[in-house]
Structures are given as C-alpha cells and as structure tokens.
Design brief:
Layout lengths: L3 E5 L4 H12 L3 E6 L24 E5 L5 H11 L3 E4 L6 H6 L1 H21 L7 E7 L22 H20 L2 E7 L1 E2 L8 H13 L6 E3 L5 E2 L2 E2 H13 L6 E3 L5 E2 H10 L3 E6 L6 E7 L1 H7 L5 H5 L5 E5 L17 H7 L7 H19 L15
Parallel strand pairs: 1-2, 1-4, 2-3, 4-5, 5-6, 6-11, 7-10, 8-15
Antiparallel strand pairs: 9-12, 13-14, 14-15
The chain binds ligand F7E.
C-alpha cells in the first residue's frame, strides 16, 4: 500500500519540489490549491494527471487554510499518513498590508489542521510537518540561530508564524501528536518573482538580454542564509520519518548580503558591477564584461548591445521596498539536522545562483520571443 501525503501549498516553491520528491518515493500525493480565475499550477504541471487516469498519484483539491470545514473534510476523506503544511501568505512585506488575513491563514490555519487531525481521531496515524521559518528569529538574539535561540518576530507574517510554531509544539505535548516544525531558510528557481533572490536573477537575465535597463531594490545590506529548496524538501521528509517528533533548523550556515547576491548573479554571466553612493542614493554600475563567459551563458547575439551599456547604472534603490521593521541578519546552525537526520545540502550559494540564473535566462529568452522553443517538461530531481 502506498503512503498518502497531503501537501497544503502544493502550488508553491516548496510544495512543487516536495510533491515530485514524494511521488518518486511511491507516495500518493494530495494537494490543496486555492481557487483562482487564472491557472496557478505552473510549478506542478509536469506532475499533473487527468482525473480520468486510473490510480493517480497526484490529486488536487480546492481549499484554503482559512476554511476549517473544507480542511476537515479533505483530511477526513483522504486519511493521510503525512501532512505537510506549506501553505501561507508568505510575503513578509505584503503581510504589513494584509495583517489580518496573514494571521488567519498563517497562524489559525495551523490550528485548523491540528484540530482536524485530532477531531477525526487520526492522531495515531497522521504525522504533521509545520513550515516554520527563519523569519521567527527576526531581531536576532543569537548568531547563528539554532533550535534553542529565542524568537523575536519583526513582521505580521513572522508573528502569525510564531503562533503556528507554538501551537504545533503545544499539540505535540498535549495530545502526543507526531507534529514537528522545520525552521527553514530557502530559495530556488521556483521562488516567486517578488522575493529578493528571484527578483535579482530575473532582472539580471532581463538586463543581459536587453529587456530591462535597471532594477530597483530595497535594503541592500540585509543578510540572508540562502539554501536550495530542493535540498530542503529532503529534510522535511526526513523529519517526518523520525520515531520522535521534534523541531529542526534547516540552513546552510553561510550568510550573504543582498548586495553580494547581486554581484554574484551578475558574475554568473561574466559581468562585474561596482556599487557607489550610500543609502537611497546607492547605485551599481556595469564595470566589466568577460565576453567569453557572457557568450557562453547568455549568447553571442546579445553581446554587442550589452557592450554599449558599460558605465550604465543597472541597480538603484527605491525606499518603497523598505520594511517598517527589518530583519537584518539571518544565519542558521543546522547541526541538529545534520546529526539526527543525516541531512546535508547538495547546493551551496554559488550553485543555487547558477541554477536560478540558467533557469531565468532560458525563461526570459522565451518571454522575449528572441529564441524559439516549446515548454520543456521539468523534472526537478533529474
Ligand atoms: O527579502 C531585502 C528585504 O522578500 C529578503 C519568505 O519566504 O523567506 C522569505 O522572507 C531580504 C529582506 O524574503 C528587496 O528587505 C532588498 O531583508 O526575499 P525576501 P524574506 O523577507 O527573508 C523566509 C524564509 C520566509 O519564511 C518568508 O515567507 O531582502 N530586500 N531589496 C528585498 N526584498 C524584496 N522582496 N524585494 C526587494 O527589492
């Protein structure tokens, strides 16, 4: 008998990687997606199966973390062995504009899942993974951050996630649930376009192809510990395979500024940028092209135009991207995950950026119609 998993947030970055990973392990994967008037399943289209296919291993349900009846019905019907709660309003800046919805989905949504499992008498069967976040550390109380580091959330998003974290711990202790938190620090080519890493790799690709002149950023000095979501979904799975539930930090242990991330993304296509000025007047200027690398990564046809841009400003600062309260520094210590789960990341920051840049150059070429070619079938783990 195949194991059954339920993934909330299956259409998101981590949901898509996890779905593919679990299907490859022989699971039947159910996913919850929100109804939208536009298609919102791009990231899992390669896994999609027509409802008329027999013995499907991917089944999607409409639902929402704000709807208890819906969640309880789905969990009751499919009786999952494992639930991965990855759904959330996940944009930190947007959470300042939609704080009540964020609290409802990201905080109470966790309670709804835990309660559904309890009320349906599924505690002995169903294991739960709660997607907690490095944003919980906020105004960091310790460097690097580990499982015992006190939390100090700095956004409505992180405050809602704090409730999600503690209600998971509370249900574990009160009702002996196999419920665990993963405190993750993660990115990938599937990252939404408005998060900083993807915004950068997308913009650098568009600048290289002549589709965009400049990118406007927020706080260039904040530091993040970025790892590849592909590595991180392996940790989620491993957490639920443990005999005892527990909470784990999953991180690379390396922290980098947004400024350096920009430098590295440009370097990936053989381009050197130089930062000048300070605060809102800070800019980055195109300084040098290693033409051999540019041709290899971007293509010879784009070089002439790009050469003319040496000396141009390609990065500026726009205060609209500043946050009312910022998280300045995140760096995780994943020693517990390494020792107890045997988890090791395969990607470092350079290979993560390489993966993101290759993907975005390809995507942007398609978008600009400068290169022909149909959509490729993606297999993230091949
Ligand atoms: O910002 C700075 C920004 O929006 C990272 C979510 O997935 O990861 C994410 O939260 C940093 C911040 O992600 C821009 O001020 C500068 O310091 O990519 P982000 P986040 O806030 O770290 C954690 C793990 C989660 O759980 C969250 O759900 O970059 N920054 N300039 C910028 N950020 C954005 N978005 N755009 C800029 O132009």
């Amino acid at each position: 008998m195949s194991k059954v998993a339920l993934i909330t947030g299956i259409t998101g970055q981590d949901g898509a990687y996890l779905a593919e990973y679990l299907i490859k392990k022989g699971y039947i994967v159910h996913g919850i997606k929100r109804r939208s008037s536009m298609f919102n399943t791009d990231r899992i289209d390669h896994l999609y199966q027509d409802p008329h296919v027999e013995n499907r291993n991917l089944i999607l349900h409409y639902g929402d973390l704000t709807d208890s009846l819906n969640l309880t019905r789905i969990i009751g019907e499919i009786q999952p062995d494992e639930i991965y709660n990855l759904a959330a309003m996940s944009h930190v800046k947007v959470s300042f504009d939609t704080p009540e919805y964020t609290a409802n989905a990201d905080g109470l949504g966790v309670l709804r899942i835990l309660e559904a499992v309890r009320l349906l008498n599924l505690i002995p069967k169903t294991r739960i993974y709660q997607a907690s976040t490095s944003e919980l550390y906020g105004l960091v109380q310790e460097v690097p951050q580990k499982e015992t580091t006190p939390f100090y959330p700095r956004s409505p998003y992180a405050v809602a996630k704090l409730y999600g974290y503690w209600i998971t711990v509370n249900y574990r202790e009160a009702y002996k649930m196999h419920a665990s938190n993963g405190i993750l620090f993660n990115e990938s080519p599937l990252r939404g376009e408005t998060f900083v890493t993807r915004k950068v790799t997308r913009a650098v690709s568009r600048i290289a192809l002549g589709m965009q002149k400049k990118v406007y950023m927020g706080n260039l000095s904040s530091k993040r510990d970025w790892g590849h979501a592909k590595d991180y979904v392996r940790a989620m799975y491993a957490i639920l395979q443990q005999d005892e539930p527990s909470d784990y930090v999953i991180a690379t242990g390396i922290t980098t500024t947004i400024r350096d991330f920009l430098r590295m993304a440009f370097a990936e296509i053989g381009v050197e940028i130089i930062f000048k000025g300070e605060n809102v007047n800070e800019v980055a200027v195109l300084n040098y092209i290693d033409e051999k690398v540019f041709i290899e990564r971007v293509g010879e046809v784009y070089l002439d135009n790009f050469r003319k841009r040496i000396g141009d400003e390609v990065v500026g600062v726009d205060p609209q991207y500043f946050r009312p309260t910022e998280v300045d520094l995140l760096i995780g210590d994943a020693t517990k995950a390494r020792t107890r789960l045997g988890w090791e990341p395969k990607y470092d920051l350079a290979s993560l950026i390489e993966d993101m840049m290759l993907n975005d150059i390809k995507l942007m070429k398609k978008e600009s119609y400068l290169k022909e070619g149909g959509y490729e079938v993606l297999n993230y783990f091949e």
